[in-house]
Specification:
Length: 313
C-alpha cells in the first residue's frame, strides 16, 4: 500500500506528505524529527526516489508538516518546529511557522524566517487572482470545544503575513477530540488540522484532518462553499454534510490506520489525495510507521468521495 520507497533498515517515517508538481516532475515532502525530507519521481504512481533531507534548522527538533509553493522560479517551504525564540501559547506550545526558500525544489531550503507566532502548524499556501493566502492551524482555549482549528491569513509577500487571521473551520464533533481531560478534568481538547484548499468549478473545498493520528476516529473531512468570491479570507466554509455529522472521506479500515494529513493533486483530469497511514498488519518498520499512500478522489457538485481501491506501488 505504500507510495514511496521504504528503507526498513533506516526508516524515518513519511508523515504529513505534501505533493508538488513542477517542471514535469513530482515531489513529495515529509516530516522528519531533524528536518524535512523529500522524494521525487517522473511518474505520480511509481519510480519514487528518496532525495534525503532538504531542510533543517540548527538546534531545534520536531519538524512538522511541510508545504511548498513555487513563485516566480523560487520554491518557498513553510513548516513548523519547536522554537524557543518566541513566547509559547497559553498551553505551552512552541511550534512556530517558518518559511525558507530555494531555487531548486530539492533545496537546500535556506534563509528560514519566522512567519507566525506559536502555536502555528500545518500550512497550505495558495495563490489566486486575489493574492497570496496561507491556511494553517492554531489554538483556542475558549468556548465549548477548545482546541486546534484552521485559520487563513493574507500574505503580503511569501515571507510576510498580514496578521489578520480569520477562523475557517472550528471543532464541532466528538470525533474531533484529540485528548480527553487534557488540561482540566471534563474539558476535552479537539483538533482540526492539516488544511488543504482547492477549487473545482464554482465550488471551493477546504479539507482537513480531525482528532489524532493515534486515535481510532482520526479522519479526513472537508468543508465547502459555492461562491464566485476569490478573497479566501471572506469565504464562509461549511462542513460537509453539516457541523454535527461525522462523515469522513478517509478513515481507518481493515488494512490501514492513522489515515490523514493529506495533500491533493490533479493529474490526468483526476484528483488524488496523498496521505499518510500505517499498516494494520506487521510490516517490519520501527518507530513512526506512517508512510505515504495515494487514493483517487471523486470531486463533483460539492461532494468529495474516495475510491478505496488503492494504488500499490
Amino acid at each position: 500500500m505504500q507510495l514511496l520507497e521504504v528503507n526498513k533498515e533506516n526508516y524515518i517515517g513519511q508523515a504529513d506528505p505534501f505533493v508538488l508538481e513542477s517542471g514535469g516532475r513530482f515531489y513529495i515532502y515529509t516530516t522528519g524529527s531533524d528536518g524535512v525530507y523529500a522524494y521525487s519521481s517522473d511518474e505520480l504512481f511509481s519510480g519514487w526516489k528518496f532525495e534525503g533531507r532538504v531542510f533543517t534548522y540548527p538546534e531545534v527538533e520536531d519538524f512538522w508538516a511541510p508545504s511548498v509553493i513555487e513563485l516566480n522560479g523560487v520554491y518557498y517551504m513553510y513548516c513548523s518546529f519547536e522554537f524557543y525564540g518566541d513566547v509559547p501559547d497559553k498551553g505551552g506550545h512552541r511550534q512556530t511557522m517558518f518559511v525558507s526558500s530555494s531555487k531548486n525544489p530539492l533545496g537546500p531550503f535556506e534563509n528560514a524566517k519566522q512567519l507566525l507566532h506559536p502555536f502555528s502548524i500545518d500550512s497550505h499556501v495558495v495563490k489566486n487572482e486575489s493574492g497570496l493566502f496561507i491556511f494553517y492551524s492554531t489554538n483556542t482555549f475558549e468556548g465549548e470545544r477548545p482546541g486546534t482549528y484552521i485559520a487563513v491569513d493574507r500574505l503580503l509577500d511569501p515571507e510576510t503575513a498580514e496578521g489578520k487571521p480569520v477562523p475557517m473551520i472550528m471543532p464541532s464533533l466528538d470525533e474531533e477530540i484529540f485528548r480527553r481531560d487534557r488540561y482540566e478534568k471534563g474539558i476535552h481538547w479537539h483538533t482540526v488540522e492539516g488544511a488543504f484548499y482547492f477549487r473545482e468549478g464554482d465550488w471551493h473545498y477546504l479539507m482537513y484532518s480531525g482528532s489524532c493520528y493515534e486515535n481510532e476516529n482520526y479522519f479526513v473531512g472537508y468543508a465547502r462553499a459555492k461562491t464566485d468570491e476569490t478573497d479566501l479570507t471572506k469565504i464562509k466554509f461549511e462542513k460537509y454534510p453539516d457541523d454535527k455529522t461525522y462523515a469522513p472521506v478517509l478513515r481507518s479500515n481493515e488494512w490501514e490506520e492513522g489515515t490523514g494529513h493529506h495533500s491533493m493533486i490533479k493529474h490526468g483530469g483526476e484528483w488524488y489525495a496523498v496521505y499518510h497511514a500505517r499498516n494494520t498488519a506487521e510490516d517490519g518498520l520501527n518507530g513512526d510507521r506512517r508512510n505515504a499512500r495515494i487514493c483517487r478522489m471523486s470531486v463533483e457538485d460539492g461532494v468529495i468521495t474516495a475510491d478505496r481501491k488503492q494504488f500499490e506501488i
